[in-house]
Amino acid sequence: MSAFLRGYLSVLVFGFAAVAMVGAMLGAGRLLRPSRPQPQKYIAYESGVDPVGTGWSQSQVRYYIFALLFVMFDVEAVFIFPWAIRLEALGIFGLVEMLIFIVILALGLVYAWRKGVLRWV
Amino acid sequence: MHAVLAAAQTLKAPDLDYFALAPEIVLTAVLVGILLLDVFVDETRKYLVTQVAGLGLLVSLVPVVALAANGADRSMLGGAYVVDNFALLVKALFLATGYVVLLMSSDYIGEGDYYEGEYSFLLLSSLLGMMVMGSSRDLITIFVALELLSIPAYLLAGWRKRDLRSNEACLKYYLLGVLASAVMLYGMSLIFGATGSTVLRTIGREVGGSVGEEPIVTLGIFFIVVGFAFKVSAVPFHFWAPDTYEGAPTPVTAFLSVASKAAGFVALLQLVYIGFFGREEVWGPLFWVLAALTMTVGNLVALRQTNVVRMLAYSSVAQAGYILVPFAVAGSNPAANATAQTAALVYLLIYAAMNLGAFAIVMAVARKTRSAEISSYGGLFTYAPGLTLLMSVFLFSLAGIPPLAGWFAKLYIFESALDAGTAAAVTLAVVAGLNAVIALFYYSAVAKEMWMRPVPDGDTTPIPVPPALAAALAFTAIVVVAVGVYPQAFARLGDLAQLTLR
Questions:
Q1: Hey, of B25, B46, B282, B287, which one would you mutate to test binding to chain A, going by the most A CBs within 10 A of its CB?
Q2: Residue B416 lies in a domain
Q3: CB contact set of B401 (below 8 Å; sequence gap of 6+)
Q4: Which residue of A75, A85, B262, B372 has the lowest C-beta tally within 10 Å?
Q5: Contact B421, B341 (CB under 8 A)
Q6: Do A90 and B11 touch (CB under 8 A)?
Q7: Total domains present in chain B
Q8: Residue B169 covered by a domain
């Protein structure tokens, strides 16, 4: 067997193992689970509330902007904590770098503000 | 959180070489500048954003040239970020490509309905990722650069947001891009697990030694190469490319098919030549199969296309196949390695010029005909002789007809295969030769339509070409013709920009 085939044998084994794993899990589930179909089970699950009306209803899109802005500043905090612990050792370099980082992130807020995203219509 | 804070005790300020980082710093400053400009100028003066962005690209070229004149190789962050001739050459390529795309798109975007300011911002963000990619010699840096260049590109592909095709382009590109990233990241985690390092140079040492014999390394290399095969749209991972290219706005298509693809190849060059060099028996045959399939399928499917953009999409798939040939033959002997690397780099440079030029013509013609069907090119010569001549130059250069640049690029590819001299390499050269003949059919079909057929609707008013688009055409055409006449210049660039292996 050539070096190439020996090398790729592991890729093949890996592929078979991946397919077999999925097949085994689905198959085991099929064998183990009881099958008692009821009409209620075919209703779309919607946070425990009975679905009303059609699926094409409109929902407020503006929440996601606030979620995005929240994530942005949340991630900023994750970077600031370790930086704050080592602030003395990092010195002026660390201060300037963090200021640049915060200013660039704040630009996102400026952008959102100028585009009128922050107004709650 | 606790683990992060514990690790923070040992954080030290990194040694940064600001001169080496200057191109990226300038580009970041331009990015910040155009974002602010965009939100504070009024709607009628948004063109200022595009102009400042173009100027900014030229300004960031200055430190690249200064670094090249300085000549010293600079390494930072424990070898994770390297600025050498290779990095500088590809950075210059990306900046030039970005500038030409900006020239092509300024009128297109300005005349459209959507977000002129954000367009330049996203284009430059993507370029920043490509600049970082040129220097990254570390798995994490490569991944960050790849995401930085891809995420703005996903948005750009969906730019015409009320057009269903553009939505489709965006969604397909995004989903497959994310899939590719996941596959690649999995491969990177395996390589990191086996070698204990993310720096390519260390990985190269480990993979060349006894660790390289582990099956897990083979798996890691396989997944990383497959991930990048998605990015460079190699068959059988190409199926997103034609739909994305057709649906995206034409300047974005030009950008994706040139810059984004080049970035994928740059990353592959670094990975293969520095990281995985000791295991050519793993990636060599893989690239061989990818190259042969990509060339053949790309060219055969391109034969059947009736839409110019789809034809150019499949042609760019096929061109990726030619660029994969040097990868397939590298590693067999030291002389072949050097030629293979030069061949891939030179092909990327020349391909950028000729493909951008072809897309610029498509845009110019679509300004009048509002169509990209090949039949709408009928009789182009009677009312736009200049455009017809230029399109013929670009098409025949893509086909590899002497004395145009594309001929020289293909010659180098063949030379790299013949330098390697193994039976597999010579077979691949024969496959590439056959493909060059097939490709000639569909390129010359468009040329025949332009020169010989009658005008389909009889409308022979000349096509107005805005100055920016004309400048983009002139620039690409000059490169294609000049390199064809005097190829030594590009070959010298490619030779200078060799990646140092160890």
A1: B282
A2: yes
A3: B407, B440
A4: A75
A5: no
A6: yes
A7: 1
A8: no
